[in-house]
Automatic annotation (TrEMBL):
<keyword id="KW-0809">Transit peptide</keyword>
<keyword id="KW-0934">Plastid</keyword>
<dbReference type="InterPro" id="IPR039633">
    <property type="entry name" value="PAP"/>
</dbReference>
<protein>
    <recommendedName>
        <fullName>Plastid lipid-associated protein/fibrillin conserved domain-containing protein</fullName>
    </recommendedName>
</protein>
<dbReference type="Pfam" id="PF04755">
    <property type="entry name" value="PAP_fibrillin"/>
</dbReference>
<dbReference type="GO" id="GO:0009536">
    <property type="term" value="C:plastid"/>
</dbReference>
<feature type="domain" description="Plastid lipid-associated protein/fibrillin conserved">
    <location>
        <begin position="45"/>
        <end position="212"/>
    </location>
</feature>
<dbReference type="InterPro" id="IPR006843">
    <property type="entry name" value="PAP/fibrillin_dom"/>
</dbReference>
């Protein structure tokens, strides 16, 4: 599939009236939008998936049955996704990473069983900026005393109407006054399986399910 930068043309199929005013300004400034009704999922499905993932340390504390329940709800929400979610202005904004079916996927080694012995992840945030910038940020504390941060910046390319690819620059690590860049570039591919004003669901190319919650509501 040929990749291309996130299109910002009047092909979007989401309504903007429910967005915060500053997010509407960003979207309108980026493109001339021809908004069509967004078919919202039943509130109970959205509330249910949020209730099942909150307080689970982004999936770490969930049982096998718990992960299956989340996957089942995500599959139901999938049927309410707009036809071309990559063109929906709702993708822009700041998102909390609430859940991943493979808890070590977001954060890598920092989220491994060994890493969690020393590093407590306080926040995991993804920022999507128009037209095609993605920033991932993990805020953590080292043994509960020293604050640190790992951040990545990447460029978003659209693969088709649902799949995106992000190529990230080498990550940056900050602990106290120390700041270093390490490693090399990395790449992720993600299918947007559902999006609305509150949540976004994504499925990685290796099958990892992600649940994101909008921060600025």
């Amino acid at each position: 599939m040929a990749s291309h930068s996130l299109p910002l043309r009047p092909l979007l199929q989401c309504k903007l009236s429910s967005l915060p005013s500053h997010r509407r300004r960003i979207s309108v400034a980026c493109s001339s939008l021809s908004a069509q009704p967004l078919v919202a999922a039943p509130d109970d499905l959205v509330s249910s998936i949020l209730s099942k993932v909150k307080g689970t340390d982004r999936g770490v504390l969930l049982s096998k049955d718990g992960h299956k329940e989340v996957a089942d709800i995500a599959q139901k929400l999938r049927s309410y996704c707009v036809s071309e979610p990559v063109k929906c202005p709702l993708i822009f904004g700041e998102w909390d990473v609430l859940y991943c079916s493979v808890p070590t996927s977001p954060g890598g080694g920092y989220r491994s069983a060994f890493g969690r012995l020393f590093l407590n992840a306080k926040e995991m945030v993804q920022i999507v900026e128009a037209p095609d910038i993605v920033k991932n940020r993990v805020l953590f504390s080292v043994i509960g005393f020293l604050d640190g941060e790992v951040s990545l910046k990447g460029k978003l390319d659209v693969l088709d109407e649902k799949w995106i690819q992000v190529i990230f620059e080498p990550p940056q690590l900050k602990i106290g006054s120390l700041a270093i860049q390490y490693g090399g570039e990395s790449e992720v591919k993600l299918e947007i399986t559902y999006i609305d004003e509150k949540i976004r669901l994504g499925l990685g190319s290796k099958g990892s399910l992600f649940v994101f919650s909008r921060r600025d509501l």
